[in-house]
Design goal:
By secondary structure, the chain is mainly alpha-helical. The protein folds into two domains: about 55 residues, 434 Repressor (Amino-terminal Domain); about 50 residues, no CATH class. About 55% of the residues lie in helices and about 10% in strands. It contains seven helices and two strands. A two-stranded antiparallel sheet has the order 1-2. A hairpin with a 6-residue loop joins strand 1 and strand 2. The radius of gyration is 15 Å and the shape is elongated. The chain starts with a helix and ends with a helix.
Length: about 120
Amino acid sequence: MTTPFSLALAAALKAKRMRQSDLARAVGCGPASIGAYLSGASVPRRDRLARINEVLGVNLVPRKRLIVEDVAPLLGVGRNTMREDMRGGAFRQIGEAVPSRKGKRHRYYFYPAKVRELVEID
């Protein structure tokens, strides 16, 4: 099951051109643990998460859903540009912009598996 955390971790590994086994060695855990994080089967403990962030030079935070700040950098667009485009109907294949009850603000929902396919993260 793809989760926002597993997607962000896969993107960070790809950006660093690092393999799962390299990260496991640097963090001090087994490759199976990293595999479980990448598949979405589990999330790391706080101490291991801190070490992963340190090694990858990122600030990954386990979340229940993807937010614009997670997705925009993966696609190489700015956050505000992505919000505007989504309100206009772009990026329908990976998410949707839903107006609030008052209609002035929007909530942005993303489909993690579709984002993973679009950015070609293995």
